Automatic annotation (TrEMBL):
<dbReference type="GO" id="GO:0032259">
    <property type="term" value="P:methylation"/>
</dbReference>
<dbReference type="Pfam" id="PF01596">
    <property type="entry name" value="Methyltransf_3"/>
</dbReference>
<dbReference type="InterPro" id="IPR050362">
    <property type="entry name" value="Cation-dep_OMT"/>
</dbReference>
<keyword id="KW-0808">Transferase</keyword>
<keyword id="KW-0949">S-adenosyl-L-methionine</keyword>
<protein>
    <recommendedName>
        <fullName>O-methyltransferase domain-containing protein</fullName>
    </recommendedName>
</protein>
<dbReference type="GO" id="GO:0008171">
    <property type="term" value="F:O-methyltransferase activity"/>
</dbReference>
<dbReference type="InterPro" id="IPR029063">
    <property type="entry name" value="SAM-dependent_MTases_sf"/>
</dbReference>
<comment type="similarity">
    <text>Belongs to the class I-like SAM-binding methyltransferase superfamily. Cation-dependent O-methyltransferase family.</text>
</comment>
<dbReference type="InterPro" id="IPR002935">
    <property type="entry name" value="SAM_O-MeTrfase"/>
</dbReference>
<dbReference type="GO" id="GO:0008757">
    <property type="term" value="F:S-adenosylmethionine-dependent methyltransferase activity"/>
</dbReference>
<keyword id="KW-0489">Methyltransferase</keyword>
């Protein structure tokens, strides 16, 4: 099967399960028109994140890597009115577009956006109540740092998701020496000996190609 097959398949399923969402469409358009790269999670993946957050009754969510706020909005819609999504973004343009998109989606009151290097923002976080869910989706070379901070900030039983963990199978190919591949490989080695979490990788194929995510539970 090829990317065309995966794309057709994902769109077929979406046509049954994902009602048309004018707000999300305008969010995607605003990000595109503002020159942001087309690297948000897919519509189906966004809905999965929303359903996951609701499945565990998440009230507090931490996201590392905001881009134009597409995944952030899915999370904000999942948390109750008194819930919150904290999201971290390095690029000022991405942060600006994301803020505009949060207003567009009417969820700005539920979102706290920190602009700056995620590693710097993370050390400033000392939440009174720990997060229920952490979504790691920024520079992959920092995945071990982000995961370590996620463990500090998440409650026992909380879920940590790390995106792009398969990357066309390249993470599993030792010949690929790019920093993002090494970052995720280092995280896998780290998890092998980590007694504080249990994790698995789920491969996916769809409009975003052949990829996958790590799903971990904090003990
Ligand atoms: N989660 C978003 C979604 O699905 O809609 C997509 C996030 S995109 C894949 C990764 C984002 O991480 C980019 O906006 C990039 O600017 C940001 N980023 C990269 N390095 C970062 C860093 N060191 N600190 C914070 N954000 C960073």
């Amino acid at each position: 099967a090829t990317i065309q097959d995966w794309t057709r398949s994902e769109k077929f399923h979406n046509s049954f399960l994902l009602p048309k969402d004018d707000v999300l469409d305008s969010v995607t358009k605003h990000s595109k028109d503002s020159g942001l790269p087309d690297i948000a999670v897919s519509e189906a993946q966004g809905k999965f994140l929303n359903l996951l957050a609701r499945s565990i009754g998440a009230k507090r969510i931490l996201e590392i890597g905001t881009l134009g706020g597409f995944s952030t909005i899915h999370f904000a819609r999942a948390v109750p009115a008194d819930g919150n999504v904290t999201t971290l973004e390095f690029d000022p343009l991405h942060a600006k577009v994301a803020s505009e998109n949060f207003k567009r989606a009417g969820v700005e009151n539920k979102i706290t956006l920190h602009v700056g290097r995620a590693a710097d923002s993370l050390v400033t976080l000392h939440p009174e109540k720990k997060f229920d869910l952490v979504f790691i989706d920024a520079d992959k070379s920092s995945n071990v740092t982000y995961f370590t901070e996620a463990k500090r900030l998440i409650r026992s039983g909380g879920v940590i998701i790390v995106d792009n963990a398969v990357y066309e199978g390249k993470v599993a190919d030792p010949e690929v020496k790019d920093s993002w591949a090494i970052g995720t490989r280092d995280l896998l080695s780290f998890l092998k000996d980590d007694k504080e979490v249990e994790a698995t990788t789920i491969g996916t194929a769809g409009v975003r190609g052949f990829d996958g995510f790590i799903y971990a539970i904090r003990k």
